[in-house]
Amino acid sequence: MLKLTGREKSSLFFEGLLTIILLGLINIALITIIQTMIQSNPGVQSGIFIIKQSLVIGPFHAQIWSYQRIVMALLVLIDIGVLWWRLLRRYHLYQLDHIIGELHYIAQGHLDHRIPFRVNGNQQHVITSVNALVDTITQAMQEERASEKSKDELITNVSHDLRTPLTSIIGYLGLIEDHQYQSEEDIVKYSHIAYDKAKQMKNLVEDLFEYTKVQQHGAPVNLMTVDLGQLLEQVGASFELEADKKGMAINVSCEPTPLSITADPEKLGRLFSNLVANALKYGHGASYIHLTAKQLGEKVVITVADDGEKIPAESVKHLFERFYRVESSRNKATGGTGLGLAIVQSIVELHHGSVTARSDDQETAFVVTLPVKQVQKEVR
To answer: Cα–Cα–Cα angle for 7, 15, 99, nearest 5°?
Structure first.
């Protein structure tokens, strides 16, 4: 509750004292006027006497009525009401002064401050609204700072990842341009290195474009009914040749069959392609990649798992961060950009789902949970 200052309490006391004095003077004046009117009018006096005679009790004729008492009681009640109204009005003014003072303090840039007290009546709605507004503004500012920081980090990371292969391309092509080679084999070697670096840049640019596209507010999502089992079969088939070269088998299972969900098939295909590609690149020593889908009530759970090299526990929680690479395996030599899993998370969020990762000595698995039904207007 609001605590008044000593000065405000003194002011409130003198306000009440002055009101009582003024009301006392008014009461004396009214009583004097009423008595004068009654004494100067014999008809009124006789009427009052008749009423008094009719309102007696017992043999002792105890008087239970007196116009003086009624007038005094009415005046006291009116005085109490006026006094209460004036003190309450003054108290509300003090409350308003405190609220305005708090608003001025917040407006000076103290956005971490909130109006700490509570009051009765409609002014409490003002306090609640002000605090909620400041919370919203603070959160918006924090999100804006985080967004600016994220953009700066994105530019820094992209610049670094583009500069490295670009430097190699310029360097090897410069050797050819300056005829600093011994044989035609050297030219082929330098050209091949430059070509590989150019492909690395191309992959980074494509992943960056895809990432920024799914990160944009209002990113278009073309919702339709998708046979999830068939989509996973297509994804597995597209990587079958590469998996065979690495001695890995891709297996797909779906329960029930068919399993239909509402989703964007193009984005969903990119999501699971990224997860399978991630398993092929970093699942060293794996013999299989399992794609399994199972409906659980109003949700469907899809797991992409391999029995390859374990991901360190301290790295698992960072896997979905942009440009993050596990140093022991997720390096640029594999062609990874560090954006594949960030794209996966963004696509999952567009579909109002979730994605998690787990890894132990037996298996590394990425688990995607999606709602079976999507509502078009809810998708950003």
So the answer is: 50
Q: Summarize pLDDT for 99-113 with one digit per residue, the tens.
A: 888 888 888 888 888
Query: How big is the chain, counted in residues?
Result: 380
Type and span of the H or E element at 255:
strand 249-255
- The CA distances from residue 311 to 9, 173, 291, 364, in Å, are 68, 38, 19, 7
Please enumerate in sequence order all residues whose Cβ is within 8 A of that of 367, keeping only pairs 6 or more positions apart, or say none.
301, 302, 303, 355, 356, 357, 358
* DSSP state string for 143-211: HHHHHHHHHHHHHHHHHHHHHHHHHHHHHHHHHHHTT--SSHHHHHHHHHHHHHHHHHHHHHHHHHHHH
Distance CA 273, CA 238 (A): 9
Q: Identify the pLDDT of residue 119.
A: 82
Domains, in order of start, for the chain = 6-120 (no CATH), 139-215 (1.10.287.130), 224-378 (3.30.565.10)
Residue 379 pLDDT: 39
